[in-house]
Amino acid sequence: QVQPVESGGDLVQPGGSLRLSCLASGSLFRIYDMTWYRQAPGKQRELVASMSSVGTTNYADSVKGRFAISRDTAKNTVYLQMNSLKPEDTAVYFCHAKWRIFQRDYDAWGQGTQVTVSS
Which of 11, 12, 44, 47 has the fewest CB neighbours in a 10 Å radius? Predict the structure, then answer.
């Protein structure tokens, strides 16, 4: 069973940086499409950044130029480097893994990690 586990959330001042990590278990990490989502209080969950199994990346307009997604296949881990953080980046950040085997789609969510940007 694939179970993503996020870490790295913290309280940080505006303008600061954080790096989130998501460890996704399973021997098929190399075929997972990995996505970071976030959900702020009272708001819907939104896509932040994604990286396909072949390395294609996609970012929300609100984080372009500030956030960067990367993956280390040897460590089964995807990262989200967040720079120039703003109060509006405050949210619970979730990791999502998606993959396909024999034309059947599978996915798994992590439990989330809290990021708070405040002075």
Answer: 44
**Partners of 47 in the β-ladder:** 37
Side-chain half-sphere of 76: how many Cα atoms within 13 Å?
Answer: 13
- Cα 100 to chain centroid, rounded: 19
- The SS3 assignment for 1 reads coil
CB 110 within 8 A of CB 36: no
pLDDT tens string 13-70: 999 999 999 999 888 888 899 999 999 999 999 999 999 999 999 999 999 999 999 9
Cα of first residue to Cα of last residue in the chain, in angstroms, is: 40
Give 25's contacts (C-beta < 8 A, 6+ positions apart): 1, 2, 3, 4, 5, 76
Amino acid identity, position 13: Q
Q: How far is CA 96 from the centre of its chain?
A: 7
